[in-house]
Amino acid sequence: MIKVIFILCSLIGCIACNKPAAHLSTQRDLLNIVANDTLHVGTIFGPTTYFYYRDVPMGYDYDLAKSFAASIHTHLKVHTYNSVEDLYDKLENGEIDIITFPCVPNRERKKEITYFPTHRNAQLLLVQLGGKEALKNAAQLQGKRIHIPRNSQAYNRLKNLNREMGGEMRIVLAHDSVSSDMLISSVVNGEIQYTAAYAPLAQLYKQYYPQLNISTALGIQQSLRWATRKTSTALNETISLWLSKIDAEEQDKLYTRYLKKSSTFKPHPYFATSPASSISPYDQWFKEYAPQINWDWRLLAAVAYHESRFNPNTVSPMGACGLMQLMPVTGAKFGLDSLNMFDPEANIAAGVQYIKYLKMVYHDIENKEEKTKFVLASYNAGPAHVLDAIRLTEKYGGDPNIWYGNVEYYLQKKNDPEFYNDPVVRYGYFNSGPTRSYVQNVLATYHRYLNKK
């Protein structure tokens, strides 16, 4: 770290010595960042870039930005916006120091913008449903309607492609409030036939919706990069130096964690070899600790099953650990550390304390069954997104104490910019599909377990 500070000071000193006094104000960007102890970055909520998982901020670009901020010994402040155009505007007027959203370099912008290769090159992919009628190449899009977000990077690429192919592709521009995520969902639901997304996002949604076909590339690979003001010379030199020092293995881990398909859990042999009269090898501890939260022990077992498949040693790609899949930060609040995180009894005990905390969050919900649904959703996603959905439910006249048809409905709406940019929403975009399924699946498993003694 001392070496990094020395390099920064030397770099800034050299710049100051070799530039006329009139340019000093534009070269003090890095000095101001360090002096104010805050690096301001701009991004857009998304399932690969920046999101909240169990109330912990995450994302490929977020983790990289956090790493860079740590390398210059400053705090990281993340600002979220609705579009790439907004990001460039905020960068230009000095409200942010770096765009940490993957941008496609623009020839005109390169006069004032410096781009950094923080991502691997990616192709724009056609997103459609699979089957015999699926298009096999870009040329077959002629005469077809393809929906694209207005002012998006994908739109610029499609305009050029359409020009190259003769201009017969019918590009339908969605409203500014419509995101690529929403258009992919519209393809899944059969509302539209085609959209396009860059490989990382398209591949992520392919994991959720295997019926999608994303095999058709729309042109050559393009670089996706962070952006800064070209006048921020000291900052730019420091970013370049930092990128040159990033360990390739660590960057591969981030890609695996956020951008590649990986199996979160695998069935564990313990479950297959458990006695017929039991649910798991850990039933005694489920029975011992469940009364602390006034739950049937089989409901607690159902949570553990869907969290870890009763594998006490599992670690999810997001870092959740053990039988009850607690994030290390959460586990530390309830008595877990590196020595006992994977101890089955200690992990169950901490999970129960976390559930007890979540029950307190929803103390106003009197109906026990309804409260359980809110607790399960929050156990899976963290309470922040659920509380956002409650605020939306209240604002739009629903019942904030009822899950199905009310809070669950508005949790689903948190992938819609119209709703996740609502003033009452504090935690932005959220893909609620896994969480809504989690609540249903845990309760279904619990009802099956009721046949056990």
Primary descriptors:
453 residues; alpha/beta; D-Maltodextrin-Binding Protein, domain 2; three-stranded antiparallel beta sheet; 20 helices
Question: Gist?
Answer:
With 453 residues, the protein is an alpha/beta fold.
SSE inventory with pairings:
Layout: H1 2-18, H2 24-27, H3 29-36, E1 38-43, E2 51-53, E3 56-58, H4 60-71, E4 75-80, H5 84-92, E5 98-103, E6 113-116, E7 124-129, E8 145-149, H6 153-165, E9 170-174, H7 180-188, E10 195-198, H8 199-208, E11 212-213, E12 225-229, H9 233-245, H10 248-258, H11 269-272, H12 283-289, H13 297-308, H14 328-333, H15 344-361, H16 368-381, H17 383-395, H18 403-412, H19 417-420, H20 433-449
Parallel strand pairs: 1-4, 1-5, 8-9
Antiparallel strand pairs: 2-3, 5-12, 6-12, 7-10, 7-11
Question: Could you walk me through the main structural features you see in this protein, from its secondary elements to its overall organization?
Answer:
With 453 residues, the chain is α/β, with parallel strands linked by helices. The protein has 3 domains: 2-118 and 224-258, Periplasmic binding protein-like II (D-Maltodextrin-Binding Protein, domain 2, 3-Layer(aba) Sandwich); 124-213, D-Maltodextrin-Binding Protein, domain 2 (3-Layer(aba) Sandwich), CATH 3.40.190; 269-449, Lysozyme. The chain has helices at residues 2-18, 24-27, 29-36, 60-71, 84-92, 153-165, 180-188, 199-208, 233-245, 248-258, 269-272, 283-289, 297-308, 328-333, 344-361, 368-381, 383-395, 403-412, 417-420, 433-449; strands at 38-43, 51-53, 56-58, 75-80, 98-103, 113-116, 124-129, 145-149, 170-174, 195-198, 212-213, 225-229. The strands form 4 sheets. Strands 4-1-5-12-6 form a 5-stranded mixed sheet, with helices on both faces. It has a 3-stranded antiparallel sheet with strand order 10-7-11, covered by helices on one side. Strand 2 and strand 3 (56-58) form a beta hairpin. The N and C termini lie far apart (58 Å).
